[in-house]
Specification:
There is one protein chain. This protein is mainly α. It has one domain. It contains two helices and no strands. It is elongated, with a radius of gyration of 14 Å. The two termini are about 15 Å apart.
Length: about 60
């Protein structure tokens, strides 16, 4: 179970990184950020940092 949770949280980190990268690329091409890009950026950042903190908690046990 611990190994599955570890890999699931790594996947969440990668997804968060992908969301933030897509937001950055979309903003560079459009020249302006809309609501969707803002949601992607905040959601991706939150997903990345929350999964990183949970991963560090699991690794310390």
């Amino acid at each position: 179970m611990k190994l599955f949770l570890h890999y699931f949280l790594l996947l969440c980190q990668y997804l968060g990184l992908v969301f933030v990268t897509l937001c950055l690329i979309s903003g560079l091409f459009k020249g302006d950020y809309g609501k969707l890009e803002l949601i992607e950026f905040v959601g991706g950042g939150a997903l990345f940092y929350l999964s990183r903190s949970f991963l560090s908690i699991i690794a310390s046990r």
